[in-house]
Amino acid sequence: MEQQIYKGKLTQFHWLKVTKKEELTKNTFSLEFEIPENLQENFQFEAGQFVSVKFQSHGKDVINDYSMTSAPYEKKISLGIKVNSPDGATSELFKNYKEGDALLVSEPSGRFTLVSKPHEFRTIVAFAAGIGITPILSHFKNILHTEPRTRLFLFFGNKNSEELVYKEWLDNLAKTCGDRLQIFYFFSREKTADQFFYGRLDAKKLNLIINQILHLDDTDEESTIWDAVDEVLICGKGEMIKTLANACYHHGIPKKNIHFELFEEFNDDIYPIEKEFPLIENVQVDFTMFGKEYHTELPDNKDKILQQLLSQKFSVPYSCKSGICGSCECYLEEGEVELLENEYLTEKEEAQGKILACMSIAKTNKIKLNFDLI
């Protein structure tokens, strides 16, 4: 049996059986799901994607998104999950569901992905904090399996060693793939023997990493390892992503090669807005949402469209307000907007008229949007 559930977009869910449940640390656990033969095609995925899980918490239906730690070649769905509160929904998921139980799981989605290049020599650097390691695990497993020429560097931040999730797996992977993978652990609330590894992953720490770890390149004596970086992956909380993404950009990595996944609601722009726009007042907005037609007027175009609609109490779907998650994706059917930073839409989707309301500034005094994509 399958269900179509609206969660910003109409999403297909299927019943999957829990085949393994494991407590990882005092506040994290993993769930593994079996994919039956008749659903193998539905659950094909790319490294770095996530699924949504529907379950009961305190008598109510809850839908939460969780990144996969499994790689596509493993033919299974494995999730790493953090319990943020003893009374929260995720705590209920841990306490109330066991191996053998079935849960509604969505078909995989998400854009925190990389194009596979198995025949190229690549250098990929990843920064993760806490449970943000989950999609990085999926990426690293997949790259080590499919790209024999790619080398990987992981900088993994946690509060302390007790909360360091997947350490045994990471250490074993580093031992078996040591010529291609290097892992460095950082702790923000636990003193380390080497002061270098104490503190948060931020712009200052990145500068030290570049100069003390990613400096000499054995493959090219005339450049550094940082000079050879092809892609950067960042996963964690919003402020960490913003700080590291800007630091990487200022150290020469193009924005299109900096990929990030957000693990909480974040309302700031990742990169500073560098453009100025002519002031337009009394912007007329017509939009379709959940099959209904709406009309409103924005006082001006000083702020982005989503933020202004939310301030007027319209229940427009969103998650991050930072152009990362795609929840506010919609069609621009009339008028013009300026789409600022965009980590989500492809060039083809933009050409089809899709925009992200959270990153769009009105450029005409009338615009028409359609949030019902299906």
TrEMBL record:
Domain 2Fe-2S ferredoxin-type positions: 283-374
Source domain of life: Bacteria
The entry's keywords: 2Fe-2S, FAD, Flavoprotein, Iron, Iron-sulfur, Metal-binding, Oxidoreductase
Domain FAD-binding FR-type: 11-115
Record's keyword annotation contains Iron: yes
Listed GO MF terms: 2 iron, 2 sulfur cluster binding; flavin adenine dinucleotide binding; metal ion binding; oxidoreductase activity
Short name of any one Pfam family annotated for the protein: FAD_binding_6
Cofactor(s) required for function per UniProt: FAD
The protein's name in its UniProt record: Ring-1,2-phenylacetyl-CoA epoxidase subunit PaaE
Organism listed in the record: Chryseobacterium limigenitum
Phylogenetic placement of the source organism: Bacteria, Pseudomonadati, Bacteroidota, Flavobacteriia, Flavobacteriales
